[in-house]
Amino acid sequence: MMPPICASIFLFLILLPTAISHDYSDALTKSILFFEGQRSGYLPKEQRMTWRRNSARDDGKNLNVDLTGGYYDAGDNIKFHFPMAFTATMLAWSAVDFGSYMSPEDLRENLVALRWGTDYLLKTVSQLPNRIFVQVGEATPDHQCWERPEDMDTPRTAYAVEAPQPASDLAGEIAAALAAASIAFQQSDPSYAKLLLVNAVKTFEYADSHRGSYTSNQGAKLAVCPFYCSVNGYEDELLWGAAWLRRATGGDSYINYLVDNRQSFNADFNCFEFGWDNKVGGLNVLVAKEVFEKNVAAIAPYKETAERMMCSYFSGSPGSHMTYSPGGLLYKPGSSQLQNTVALSFLLLTYADYLSKSSQQLQCGSLKIHPDSFRRLAKRQVDYILGDNPMKMSYMVGYGDRYPRQIHHRGASSPSIVTHPTPIKCSEGWNIFASPNPDPNVLVGAVIGGPGLDDKFVGGRTNASQTEPTTYINAPFVGLLAYFKANPNFM
């Protein structure tokens, strides 16, 4: 642990105003546009990322179901439903808590991006209570090729879990996504919001009735692992789904569920984490809102755990602490660093909002932390990503003058059908992968994996951990950018 003086200096440094001013409005618009580059299926006439074309038009055919649409999660061409559902949840949370900071156009586009995801998720649960679909595409053959989505000739096998086999983690996350989205669409499309909520309830019932991980099913495990196994278990998704259903419905039964299952489901375990696999950090922050607003004493332990997490961001507080790079980046070890930074920063900003609305500050031992300190730290992370970092590089593609020009993404790195209508086969694509040339297509708005703990960025298509974008990095970044777009001069 740092000595008190060093800790105070370090806290001061990471909360310093950043030196570079940023166009958060431009970054927000681009962060939402990115999702158009990840679309699968038949593209609409309003498609703005025009180097993309229709792809994967027969998805679900092997199971006699329509599974066209949805998102490719990263730089490959597989549709992994578990991280796709988390992406939708975070796009919805961005709209619900930070939509008021967006322009009408940005909010509309955010809801368009969200709906592209939720329309697809409705397909994945369309055969409940008998079957839930978990993935489309075979990861190993896909990863053996470097093909743009429009040329795919690798197997598009769809995988499902059949009742009574468990899928609590997947179904719990889909329930959370649909419930959160039902709130986001309540004003603009109440009939769609109702459809989402009905399916959220149905999906949660399946998740709770058949408890266990979706990767306990051998077929699903072979398809999904090692890419999106639920390493953290399924219990956090059950609580997460219940928390979002409570927020969407106001139903006391979900409060009872959260109270009755908190200890047995280990809501304190790995509670300083938040991402596509571990929902515990986000769960505790989300449930804390109920305590702030309605003083529901029975769920106060969730708020207490959230406060421990919030204190951990600040080095002068007692207990465990988050890790920062020398340049001030909130850092957690993982294959894609910025997914952790962005998701954890989203929670900072969200909790600051809850504190401000209740006219409270956070007490961390002898340290009293004002909500604005949370915002300064979150802003420091956003500015770091946008270019205020030791590399002086934007980690958002298409933002600023200096950003990575070779990213680990098949579609961006390959000439588009517009310029190269002849199919590019599997083996041919590896020549593109190895090319020193910049990407011919700019995947505007994509936030990539980012630098290492030493703030160094090597780059290059071969360096997937640093240069691959994912939908679940961008989704929470939308909410962060929306706030700072509305408050660009916040210091």
Automatic annotation (TrEMBL):
Catalytic reaction equation(s): Endohydrolysis of (1->4)-beta-D-glucosidic linkages in cellulose, lichenin and cereal beta-D-glucans
Annotated GO biological process: cell wall organization; cellulose catabolic process
GO molecular function, one term: cellulase activity
The EC number(s) this enzyme carries: 3.2.1.4
UniProt signal peptide: 1-21
Domain of life according to the entry: Eukaryota
Family: Belongs to the glycosyl hydrolase 9 (cellulase E) family.
Official protein name in the record: Endoglucanase
Species of origin: Microthlaspi erraticum
